[in-house]
Amino acid sequence: MKNLRFLVLHGPNLNLLGTREPGHYGHVTLADINQSLIELGDTLGIEISTFQSNHEGELVDRIHQAASDNIDGIIINPAAYTHTSIALRDALLAISIPFIEVHLSNIHRREEFRHHSMLADAATGIVAGFGATSYLLALRGLQDHLRQI
Ligand code: DQA
């Protein structure tokens, strides 16, 4: 079976996980999440690269780079850019690599402005509300999707 390469992107303020609004996001840190993704990737034969930025343009640049890096799939928690960013949407559509949108919290249980995503209708799937486990579910879902096509 071919090894897959996934890029995991984390948007603004996710570098503060662990201390940021634990009622919504728990106590897990971004380093913990990345480590658990790498470990699950190892067992599934998936190479994981991770990138976090608080800057929209840097995330756009990293998405463009995914095409030349031969990335098979993207897992993205766009954080607040979920609700605002046409630029991230356009970048993901431009490279046509399948992606999963991930949220730690269930955005539909929260403020109304979080209910809309600029990316969701272009995503292969969405996982929200399971805390750090959302990322691991996305990893398994994306690998099943890619191994079937
Ligand atoms: C989030 C939800 C977003 O609404 C919020 O702006 C975030 C994190 C989540 O993972 O639950 O920063 O994407």
Automatic annotation (TrEMBL):
Binding of substrate, residues:
77, 83, 90, 104-105, 114
**Taxonomically, which superkingdom?**
Bacteria
Q: Name one GO biological process term.
A: aromatic amino acid family biosynthetic process
Write out the catalytic residues in the record: 25, 103
A Pfam entry, by short name: DHquinase_II
**Is Amino-acid biosynthesis included in the keywords of this UniProt record?**
yes
Q: Which residues form a coiled coil?
A: none
Task: Show the GO MF annotations.
Answer: 3-dehydroquinate dehydratase activity
Pathway terms, separated by semicolons = Metabolic intermediate biosynthesis; chorismate biosynthesis; chorismate from D-erythrose 4-phosphate and phosphoenolpyruvate: step 3/7
Enzyme Commission designation: 4.2.1.10
Q: Which reaction does it catalyse?
A: 3-dehydroquinate = 3-dehydroshikimate + H2O
Q: Which stretches are transmembrane?
A: 118-138
Q: Known InterPro entries for this protein?
A: DHquinase_II, DHquinase_II_CS, DHquinase_II_sf
The protein's site described by Transition state stabilizer is found at 20
HAMAP family reported for this sequence: AroQ
Family matches, as PANTHER family: CATABOLIC 3-DEHYDROQUINASE
How this chain assembles, per its entry, is:
Homododecamer.
The record's family statement is: Belongs to the type-II 3-dehydroquinase family.
State what this protein does. Answer: Catalyzes a trans-dehydration via an enolate intermediate.
What is this protein's name? 3-dehydroquinate dehydratase
Q: Which organism is it from?
A: Mariprofundus aestuarium
Q: What is the lineage of its organism?
A: Bacteria, Pseudomonadati, Pseudomonadota, Candidatius Mariprofundia, Mariprofundales
